[in-house]
Amino acid sequence: MVYYIRFLQPPRWKSDKTRRTPFLSSLLTLTTDLGDDFYPGEVTIRATLVSETNPHAVEEVKWKPGCRCVRVNMEVNASRCSWPASLAFAVNDLPLVNHLGHQDIPEFVNAWTAPFTLDDDPDPRMVRRFTLPTGDVLNIYEENGDSIARHIWWAMAHLPFLHDFYSHHHLRLAPGRTHQILELGSGCGTVGIGVAQSNAHCSVWVTDHPDAMETLSHNVMHSSPMPCSKLNMEPLDWNCSDAELLTLLDSIGGSVDLIIVSECIYNPDSIPALVNTIQRIVDNNTTGRLPKEIPSIYMATKVRHPSEAVFFDLMAEAGFNITERVTTNLPDTLRKANGLPLEKVDIYSFVRNHEAVRELKSVKKLK
Predict the structure, then answer these.
(1) What CA–CA distance (Å, rounded) separates 22 from 190?
(2) Residue 270 confidence (pLDDT) above 90
(3) Distance of CA 112 to CAs 129, 166, 168, Å?
(4) Does residue 364 register a pLDDT over 60?
(5) Mind listing the pLDDT tens digit for each residue in 188-225?
(6) CA terminus-to-terminus distance, the chain
(7) DSSP states of 214-250
(8) Helices (runs of H) and strands (runs of E) counted in the chain
(9) What is the 3-class SS of 42-101, one letter each residue?
(10) pLDDT classification of 113: cutoffs 50, 70, 90
(11) Would you say 349 and 173 are in contact if contact means Cβ atoms under 8 Å apart?
(12) Mean pLDDT of 223-244
């Protein structure tokens, strides 16, 4: 289980008669990606005021079993700090920036504020900071509200595996060519932006429902793709018309080499529209520059309910075969110590079975 530090009340400058200097006050929780459970153990939450990577002040509070939130008040000697600065929250003595690697999935996800000054309160949004396998730092803004589209989910732990998959299956087949990558249901954009920042020769298109574009747009604007890669953003409703989908594909250039789907099958009611969208994209894909199994579909998920299995049934009915599967455990010190099974992230690669598609179309014609 991965737990996230979240702001219930984002940091704000305050003052009172009992303190000689202004202080920053925050109300935090330590919860799961869906916010439906709280960390059941005891840890120390460490708040650090950081400017240009140099810590200026540190405040610690205890999170104990049964906690639902903790208040952190940090006194700040402004004359000893350089501004602007950021406030970073981490657990115990773990690094302030989480590292993403094959064997380095963090159990606790840190929270940062955007840089702020003495004259302004920090931006109420959290910033997640991750070191990618390439060494680049990925900054993702996340909302504090209840909308799941505006939070990161932990199937993003598959980013290092996606980096390997892309390098092996696409760069190896056509080195030096710009590869078109389309992500469906991008949410905050963590996966698609991470791909653009850590892979060369790719043009990444992140998409989501038109109502979920605000945070995604903010993160795209603050991203840093590799010099030879591009990052683009478009709204996409999976229930859109064929004409609307073709307009998007025309914007991409008519061809897609890789489709990414990450944490998009938690709602069984939306799965048929998702599979239909994948099918329509592949049906209208004009690529002929790579072997016929391109475009490939790369999907990662943390299973939350048995009803999610309908995704795999519908993909099989549409003629998509699973060609690879990788399972990685999510860290959980308490569950491991008690001998309980660990939660997992499953990563799949699909390709279209063209013979099965022809048979499916023949059956539909007979009907």
Answers:
(1) 35
(2) yes
(3) 7, 30, 34
(4) no
(5) 999 999 999 988 888 999 999 998 899 999 999 999 99
(6) 48
(7) HHHHHHHHT----TT-EEEEEE--TT--HHHHHHHHH
(8) 8, 18
(9) CEEEEEEEEECCEEEEEEEEEECCCCCCEEEEEECCHHHCCCCEEEEEEECCCCCCEECC
(10) very high
(11) no
(12) 94
Q: Please, which residues have CB within 8 angstroms of residue 134's CB and are 6 or more apart in sequence?
A: 163, 197, 198
pLDDT in tens, 305-359: 889 999 999 999 999 999 989 888 888 899 999 999 988 889 899 988 765 555 5
Up-side HSE of residue 354: CA atoms within 13 Å toward CB?
A: 8
> What is the reported pLDDT for 102?
66
Q: What is the CA radius of gyration of the chain?
A: 22
In this structure, what are the phi and psi dihedrals at residue 72, rounded to the nearest 5 degrees?
-120, 120
Helical (H) or strand (E) element with 267: none
Prior bond of 84 cis (ω within 30°):
yes
The one-letter code for the residue type at 280 is R
Task: Specify the residue for token string 């509070």.
Answer: 61
Q: Which residues contact 234 (CB under 8 A, 6 or more apart)?
A: 205, 206, 207, 248, 251
159-166 and 190-198 helices cross at what angle (nearest 10)? Answer: 50
**Residue 28: CB atoms within 10 Å:** 23
User: Residue 99: phi, psi to the nearest 5?
Assistant: -105, 135
Taken as a whole, the chain contains a residue count of 367
CA distance 351 to 323: 7
Q: DSSP string spanning 172-184?
A: TTSTTSPEEEEEE
Residue type (1 letter), 246:
L
